[in-house]
Every structure is written in structure tokens, then in C-alpha cells.
Amino acid sequence: MLTSVDTDVIRVLGDSLRLKIVTLLARETLCTTHLVQETGAKQTNLSNHMKVLREAGIVDTEPCGRFTYYKLKPEVLEGLSMQFAELAASARGAAENKRAC
């Protein structure tokens, strides 16, 4: 069953720009400048989205001089993936179950 924390992660990933950011971070650790270049988002808008991703526990920050690098926390997505796999398995088993009206 999905918990409230997991539904928060799903809500956060429901935004197309944040999903694009997560997809980019799945490939490599990037700084704000890289993310602005890759997404075309304004720096302030991107920073707001990064704050949401950090607060949801999806990304970690790594200071490097005057830059902040962001990296994905794969265990968060793995946990979510396992829960969706469990839901899919349950749905397969429940396909023949029909409650009478």
C-alpha cells in the first residue's frame, strides 16, 4: 500500500519539469547551471523546483566551491518502484475477483 510519504513523492514527480530534472539526475550529478542549460528553465524557477525535490527526499545536495551539485537518491525511487510492482501483482491476482452488487 502506498504511504503518505510515497504519495508526496508521486505528487512531486507529477510536475513535468521536476520529472525532467530527475531524469537528468539519473544520468549524472549536475549543478544548477547545468540544469538551467538542460531544461531551459529560469534559475529562480529551477531553484524552487530543486527545493521541492530536496524536501521530498528525492535529491541530495553536494556543495562544491560556489556551486551546488544535485544527485538523485535512487533508494527513494527503488522503494516507490517496489510498491508499484506490488500493486501490479495484486491487480493481476484480483482480476477475477468481482464484488456482487
What's the short version?
This protein is of the alpha+beta class. Helices cover 63% and strands 14% of the residues.
Q: Low-confidence segments, ≥5 residues, pLDDT <50? A: none
**Tally of individual helices:** 5
Mean pLDDT: 90
What's the count of strands? Answer: 3
Strand ordering within the main sheet: 1-3-2
* Main pleated sheet: 3 strands, antiparallel
> What structural class do helix, strand and pairing data support?
alpha+beta
**Radius of gyration, Cα only, in angstroms?**
17 Å
Can you tell me the overall shape? elongated
Determine the N-to-C terminus distance.
25 Å
What sequence of helices (H) and strands (E) makes up the elements? HHEHHEEH
Helix content: 55-70%
Beta-strand content: 5-15%
Q: What is the topological layout?
A:
Layout: H1 4-13, H2 16-27, E1 30-31, H3 32-39, H4 43-55, E2 59-64, E3 67-72, H5 74-94
Antiparallel strand pairs: 1-3, 2-3
Q: What labels describe this entry?
A:
about 100 residues; alpha+beta; about 65% helix
Describe the 3D structure.
The mean pLDDT is 90. The protein is elongated, with a radius of gyration of 17 Å. It has helices at 4-13, 16-27, 32-39, 43-55, 74-94; strands at residues 30-31, 59-64, 67-72. It is α+β, with helices and mostly antiparallel strands and 101 residues long. The longest helix is centred in the last third of the chain and has 21 residues, at 74-94. The chain has a 3-stranded antiparallel beta sheet. The protein is built from 5 helices and 3 strands; from the N terminus they run H-H-E-H-H-E-E-H. 63% of the residues lie in helices and 14% in strands.
